[in-house]
Write a structure and sequence with these properties.
By secondary structure, chain A is of the alpha/beta class. Chain A has 15 helices and eleven strands. The first copy, chain A, has helices spanning 8-13, 34-43, 46-51, 53-66, 80-87, 106-111, 122-135, 148-157, 165-173, 175-198, 216-233, 256-260, 275-282, 301-315, 335-349; strands spanning 72-73, 89-92, 96-99, 141-146, 203-208, 237-238, 241-242, 245-249, 266-268, 287-292, 321-325. In chain A, strands 1-4-5-8-9-10-11 form a seven-stranded parallel beta sheet. The two termini of chain A are 32 Å apart. At the A-B interface, helix 9, helix 11 and helix 14 of A face helix 9, helix 11 and helix 14 of B. Chains A, B: InterPro entries: UROD/MetE-like_sf, Uroporphyrinogen_deCO2ase_HemE, Uroporphyrinogen_deCOase. Chains A, B: Homodimer.
Chain lengths: 354, 354
């Protein structure tokens, strides 16, 4: 394996000194880039793009050719695990992801087996190793998974939901059924993420996109508990380096202390939290990733610059901050504004690392 | 006017002693009730129901006939104010509210005039006075409005939105334009709510459904600032009694201190906050309304009972709590479960008021 040339991202997550605040963007390989759209058109549909290791590698590298980013993230979908469990993932235009066979009964859940990451999910592992090789040590590669709760919402509802009617009914009426599902998912995610590390991922992130839909009690019982199980089961070292783990619950700003208690290395923040407040609350224990509202990228480069300045000043001096958006970049963002954003972080952050 | 027989709701909001925790449900006049659906079918469409004072009164009173509730809330829509400004509100099945003439330019915003509540919004005032009369003093009547930010999201986007692309672009690129709109809306809401009080409303609530989509800074600049202006401009007394004002920002659990600083009487809480934590943070200054996840009503009466118990225990002893859901009741809830919920609050809350 090539020696890692830029390890700012890994160092900041472990609170080691850096020369400037590292930056990457959630969904940086995405529809705002014309080159992404071209490759996706070549692949046909979204899952074909995920399943073709060369095209998945190509779209992973595209934003790194345009911008001076400090990390690459595996191009894949959070729903690969339930798909590998046999639910039949498909995408309907304008409708988001759907499953042909939702698992909303105890019988369906009992029948689910834990996917072998090198078999049913082998295409993801081939993408990871291809990307790692093609990165040639330029920046670290982030592997990821959805959280058990977030995966379960799609599996039980059959797709996206606004009110989470079915899964919340299950949570309150048949908690044992839901716990069985979540436990199988946690076991699956542990194998899946550890296989990503074995194939070359150098850091891991768990996306809990829908944890924020839960009550403070239910979050601990149905989401955080299974992220804890995953954190406890992960390979935390590879190639003689630590593999940092970041947890991100969208809408979880009230629960940062409980999230930090899991022993993860970093927390992702959405834009509702002041990052300086978050640092005062949990900054002794974890690094923080975030947290600009992606909608700021609709504004002028000057306005973006101001917002970057405010976030850096709020975090303050020293390491432990990975700059990012508070959610994935929107598809209608001008790629030049994304470039201006990245440059602002580079330029302005140096003064906070002396 | 008839003497108020049950003033538990008003007393709890003002932190005066009560014999049990008062309860009402957001959207208690709604589609989960068959009698509501019958009246709505009679009216034709949703806005015709709002605009007919007798039918609006009828649906307001329906839940009070079924359940032992401690407050009635005016049946209306949050978008009556922009509609009265000439935007042309209409509802498309499955699409939510839309405006024929969105106001997404400075010219359109400059042309907006502030509606006369007794003229363009006279139908709301007639509904308020009809309901107040027909309540015969049984329970207090709550008047309400959307917050300026929440109204502006629909006006600029032209309807519901997930990413608030247009209005956030305006917020970051043309803040002066958005401030002009928000200021006109705040002035309109002050007149509108004061007219509701003049016509019989005994308490007021401001629904900031989309404040939680903003960053912590932008929330203060674009939402809270205008709720502050409204709180400062409201009639706070009528009929020799105080008219309590409740602010509710969905997803605003991180910002309770700033909300309490407005000088309102109470804060609405969604279910992501622990109500005991909220009381420790701001309970000296404001009463608290909430905060059960409406999805708990999908569960059995036994499970609902447990959840009520947990929330009451978390708030603890004494006044200052108005029980409610953390959001409007869902349309697929069994009305008998709503009844079991209300009975549980009655039964369990007495021990906290000795």
């Amino acid at each position: 394996m090539a020696e890692l040339k830029n390890d700012r991202y890994l160092r900041a997550l472990l609170k080691q000194p850096v020369d400037r605040t590292p930056i990457w963007m959630m969904r940086q390989a995405g529809r705002y880039l014309p080159e992404y759209k071209a490759t996706r058109a070549e692949a046909g549909d979204f899952m074909s793009l995920c399943k073709n290791q060369d095209l998945a590698c190509e779209v992973t590298l595209q934003p790194l050719r345009r911008y001076d980013l400090d990390a690459a993230i595996l191009f894949s979908d959070i729903l690969t695990v339930p798909d590998a469990m046999g639910l039949g993932l498909y995408f309907e235009t304008g409708e988001g992801p759907r499953f042909e066979r939702p698992t909303d009964t105890i019988d369906a859940i009992k029948k689910l087996s834990i996917p072998d990451p090198e078999d049913e999910l082998g295409y993801v592992m081939r993408a990871v190793s291809t990307i790692r090789r093609e990165l040639k040590g330029e920046v670290p590669l982030i592997g990821f998974s959805g959280s058990p709760w977030t995966l379960a919402t799609y599996m039980v509802e059959g797709g996206s939901s606004k009110t989470f009617e079915k899964i919340k009914k299950m949570a309150y009426e048949e908690p044992a059924t839901l716990h069985l599902l979540l436990d199988k998912l946690a076991d699956s995610v542990i194998l899946y993420l550890n296989a990503q590390v074995a194939n070359g991922a150098q850091a891991l992130m768990i996306f809990d996109s829908w944890g924020g839909a839960l009550s403070h009690h239910a979050y601990r019982e149905f989401s955080l508990r299974y992220m804890q199980k995953i954190v406890d089961g992960l390979t935390r070292h590879a190639d003689g380096r630590q593999v940092p783990v970041t947890l991100f619950t969208k809408g979880g700003g009230l629960w940062l202390e409980a999230m930090a208690d899991t022993g993860c290395d970093a927390l992702g923040l959405d834009w509702t939290v002041d990052i300086g407040d978050a640092r005062r609350r949990v900054g002794e224990r974890v690094a923080l990733q975030g947290n600009m509202d992606p909608s700021v990228l609709y504004a002028s480069p000057e306005r973006i610059h101001q917002e970057v300045e405010q976030i850096l000043a709020s975090y303050g001096e020293g390491t432990g901050h990975v700059f990012n958006l508070g959610h994935g970049i929107h598809q209608h963002v001008n790629p030049e504004h994304a470039g201006a954003f990245i440059n602002s972080v580079h330029e302005l952050s140096k003064q906070y690392h002396k």
